Amino acid sequence: MRKILLLALVGLGAQLVDGSLGMAYGVTSTTLLLAVGVHAAAASATVHLAEIGTTLASGAAHWRFGNIDTKVVARIGIPGAIGAFAGATFLSSLSTDAAAPIMSLILLTLGSYLLVRFTTFGLPQDNVDKPLRKRFLGPLGLLAGFVDATGGGGWGPIGTPAILASGRLEPRKVIGSIDTSEFLVAVAASLGFLVGIGAENINFGWVTALLIGGVVAAPVAAWLVRKVPPRVLGSAVGGMIVLTNSRTLLHSDWFDAAVTVRYGCYTVVCAVWAAAVAHSIRQHLMEQRRQPVAIGSDSEPRSS
């Protein structure tokens, strides 16, 4: 019973982060399942079955708050589903641990770019709301779906920074669209795992616990992403990507860093991340203060 309650709390916390930042539900939940000795394929299957419900609830909440671009959902979600089904059947018979450091290095680069871009310049306005092309979203969805199924998470960490980096969609709609399209990915991955490992290797009690926690958090996360300023949200997403993938790289065979080195790096990353978010908040507040002045100066000539 204690394990079920813990899983429900993990599902709640993971969905709160995922729904507001567009990533981390699968990564957080899968990490816990692997820590208690669950096979990689069974852990990923458990998380994706739970995500069928959490992503449906999250998508409905994001739709209610106007955080979705339906064209983006379709253009990235369908290829993502194809990649997820292929990844699930592949993982059922083969481990992909060797690819983790390479993918983490790519994500670390993207996260660093986002952290600098949003902290320094904010959201680029000249490209926002220009359409995202199928030739960009299709391959992105295929790759993100495959990695998501094989790694127990990755749809958000790959899809969110790539679309954010394009500057063509405001952060809240990027997150809402990624969360909504993940429903298709979760369904396809779950079908792939049921074919590959069978239902007997999946603990449906754990699935239910993760699902309940995630469904409870979904509307709160959708409301939160609407309220957080885009500049702050971009800095927060970038920092999370950098921290998460730094940890993966430092634990990998590439580095196998000592404990003191790892925690020293985490401290530096967290300090830079906190400073970046604080700077973004200050810049946002300064921009808000300028707006009433501009309105007042425009209105004075009319009254004279």
UniProtKB/TrEMBL annotation:
Origin superkingdom: Bacteria
Transmembrane segments: 32-51, 72-92, 98-116, 182-199, 205-225, 261-281
Keyword Transit peptide: no
Chief location category: membrane
InterPro entries in UniProt: TM_pro_TauE-like, TSUP/Inactive_protease-like
GO cellular component: plasma membrane
Compartments (UniProt record): Cell membrane; Membrane
Topological relation to the membrane, as annotated: Multi-pass membrane protein
Entry-linked Pfam families: TauE
Keywords: Cell membrane, Membrane, Transmembrane, Transmembrane helix
PANTHER family: MEMBRANE TRANSPORTER PROTEIN MJ0441-RELATED, MEMBRANE TRANSPORTER PROTEIN YTNM-RELATED
Family: Belongs to the 4-toluene sulfonate uptake permease (TSUP) (TC 2.A.102) family.
Protein name (record): Probable membrane transporter protein
Annotated source species: Micromonospora pisi
Lineage, opening ranks: Bacteria, Bacillati, Actinomycetota, Actinomycetes, Micromonosporales
